[in-house]
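Researcher: Last one for today. Full complex below.
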Amino acid sequence: MDKLTKLGILAEAARFDAACTSSGVTRGPREGMVGDACASGLCHSFSADGRCITLLKVLMSNACSFDCAYCVNRRGASCPRATFEPRELAELTLDFYKRNYIEGLFLSSAVLGNPDNTTERMIACLEALRGEFRFNGYVHAKVIPDTSPELVDRLGRLADRLSVNLELPSRASLTALCPDKDASSVMAPMAQIATTRREEERQLLDSPAGKRALARRSGRSSSHVSEGMQVTSAGARYTLGRPASAVPNALRKFVPAGQSTQLIIGATPEDDNHILQLSKSLYDHYGLKRIFFSAYMPMVEDSRLPDRETPVPLRREHRLYQADWLMRYYAFTPDELATPSRPWLDLDVDPKLAWALAHMERFPIEVMDASLEMLLRVPGIGPVGARRILAARRTRRLCLDDLQGLGIAFKRACYFVTCGGKRDQAAPLDADLIRRKVVSDAAGSKYNSARRQAEGQLSLF
Amino acid sequence: MLACGEAVVVCCERTAESVLAAIGVTYLSHADPHRVRLVATDKAQARIGEKVIALGDEDDGSVVALAKRVYAGFERSCGTTCARRVVLACAADESGMPEAVHRYLRLGFSEGKRLYEDVGAPEALAFAKLVQRVSSECEHTRQFVRFVRLPDGTFVSVFEPNENTLPLVCCHFARRMKEDRFVIVDPRHLVAIFHEPGDASCAVVGLDGETAAMLASRVDEADERERLVQALWQRFYRAMELPGRGAASRGYDLRASWMPKRFWHGLPELDPRLRR
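Model: Here's the assembly. Have a good evening.
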């Protein structure tokens, strides 16, 4: 099989994995090596459907011995099969990297024989890439459930980020759709990665290199204070997310960019509240950096799955990403976004707006004296805008016209704020009127109209 | 020295050195801050009664020396972050750039360290727009530059950003491709960056039109192996598309909003000639 055909098959087989970030670790260039890594990541292209392409995302092989019902590569599927030679894939990664097509490699695989065999093949590829080809760029590798702990450890010392895909949001769904997997085989490597990272962090904090890095870090933060707050970048410094690791990722040898996972949305009946609660629990217990949501695409005929004509739940995926972002950076709790009694996110309005509409008694807030926490709860005000407001109001008295210049989406925020005691005159005062206007504006957007037509769903409002 | 209250227009090039030196000239000449303005030489049009001052060539060492003095003074007064943002803003193509930078520096010299937090001042807002525009175009440059490997091992790229970003991103590419020889040409701003294996930085060179065209034409020297790599990349790119999520399903073209169409002609993944 020629390389073009093989790449086509193995890339197409990998495209359902939503993770494609190269973020989380900064690593400078090294003598005699190729490339570097940057914590903010870099998207080099965008597919026709608008998803970013950052890494060469392929499977090592799509010849799978597992039979997960939702998967296009499952044992029983009739599709062309292909397998990369480890060195062949390493060489291709380097070719793409040097032309500025990608930031690195995203390596996953179907289960070729058994999990250990497959992982050994993936390790051989990464050893060629890091050793023979001296690649210093970003690598994201997938851990296959039931892989031996020793192999997970070796993989984690070659890759920047590891991910173990949970895929289905409950034990019952996993049992129903994945006869070859069980929850413990998925959770065990996730727990191993979290434990090893914590252990490494503890050792680094005691080491001279760790102490030096910490001293540098505290020196840098004091220089920021002397220059004021970071009002020019989108950094997480003044958001309300989880605390960052005490150790710089560049010092870590094991999975420096942390771990992530993926959940398939819409293949099984779990509601949004369940998914957000699960996400919160994963972030808290396993220190996950990201959870990716992949809207289920009905490509497979199976009585346990939604009908093939079922539309892709794109808006639901989108709203879950927004809710996830609010939990990580704005300190929202799952129950604030989707309650047990109303367990689905509204599809027509984003979760922050939905929360604000449900809590109109807390608005409007006065921009000149609101806390950072409250500013971040206003639709249309993000971390950068909130920080700018805090900085600007120390030096001058702001008026409504100033807000747009500070990076506030005033069209969205105008219903929820006053500035110097004044409200936007065009914004209605009555909470019901505000709700009707905001919901009708959101529902009328091109995105919502197109999706409502495709999904055939009505707004929950 | 100017006559008291005389209206002045100082003409400068659209480079950080020239703009900063021109600002230095306005201070050295004790011009009335309310009656002096900076304009780009190619857009210069004096108003009635305005005295025109043209800055010397950048090759003249005194221009660079004055620019360095202004930069150092500003950095000392307002901090490193604000000074770095000045360099970014000076890369903007917008015709009003010199005057926006001039006003921001004057605000900075009067406010000192408070400048960083005074994001609501009209001068700071106008300046921030320039910085935002250049920062965004720097990101586009890092994203969408595409190299072609020539048979001799040199990597060549032609890229035409809206702002003069190559000098600002050359360190990024030097880090990324430390062991490679490469050149990136910007025929629009007549600038190229050159890198030799092992170097920690690139040489930034101004070009004439003929040299820029000659360098740009070298991408056509790609051999069969290079075309195969491009075809592989295109095959990978096409394989990434998921059905049911395109522009028709979304109601808008998400790809075009992330990847502006002005860059598409330089992307091998979208080049129909490479389709296999």
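The CA atoms of residues 23 and 41 of chain A lie 4 Å apart. Chain A touches chain B through 67 residues (CB under 8 Å).
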